[in-house]
Amino acid sequence: MLKKVALVTGAAGFIGYHISKLLLDEGWSVIGVDCISNYYDVTLKKDREKLLKKYANYTPIYEKIEKTGLLNDLFKAYNPEVVVHLAAQAGVRHSINSPRDYLESNIVGTFELLEAARNYTPKHLLLASTSSVYGANTSVPYKEIDKSEHQMSFYAATKKATENIAHSYSHLYKVPITMFRFFTVYGPWGRPDMALFKFTKAILADETIDIYNHGNMLRDFTYIDDLTRGIRLLINKAPKVLKKSVDKDSLSPIAPFRIVNIGNSEQVNLIRFIEEIENALKKKARKRFLPMQPGDVPSTLADTTLLKNLTNFQPSTDITQGIANFTEWYISYYLKK
User: Is the pTM above the cut of 0.90?
Assistant: First the structure.
């Protein structure tokens, strides 16, 4: 039986906030680590954090995860049985201009986490990866057992590197690790650098939106509540060495290590995505069509057979409902203060 102590890195971030809140609502004690970086508006991060701090069982730690020894000290002090590692420098396009940020946060930060887990092994260590690691793969839907050797951005390359590094620690020190590959997560309290947020803001302000690859983009959009539910269910599914009991399992043959896709398993065309935002806002967008951005991919789609087999859960929130929920939150947060 878990002691219900969880450490969440990136707790003031979009996904970190939602998973922290879910665990807090269930009665977990959550140690939330976040440096409140200025990659996007810190006000949004601080407002998420304010909501978490209303819980008596939430402990905030304001530090960078790459700080030498920080995570080791936190593991020693709090002895978390579950760790959800979400802190990272995100964004495909930003990684082209500021690659060092990704090296330090994604790779060095994850190294610090794994060193701590080596010394104070939790029951389950869950690390965020991304669908971007599939890179140039053209076979869809993406399966966890597919080769993923050709990343198309430095962001994706750092995430693939963390998967490989984590596997080595899992093998050497028997740390139970699940890597999640997320597929275009969206919803209330989302990141301002993502398309839904940017499009909503621009449409309401009568500003032009940029549509890359002339709109010929397909994405597997995953609603935040589906994602957090998937993570929560997988917390209780720590991998074990050579316990390969489900179909299409990505479980390592030499380590308690598994990779799991979390996506909606439905492709949505970018033009339809914009139309859904227009419908929710009851306002048309001004559009500028542009070529594909460097490092981006034209299509993503998750095979979530493994997630379903492990948890009996399949993300299914319809894009119309998900976008309506987001725009309702956006208007309430930004326009009705």
Answer: yes
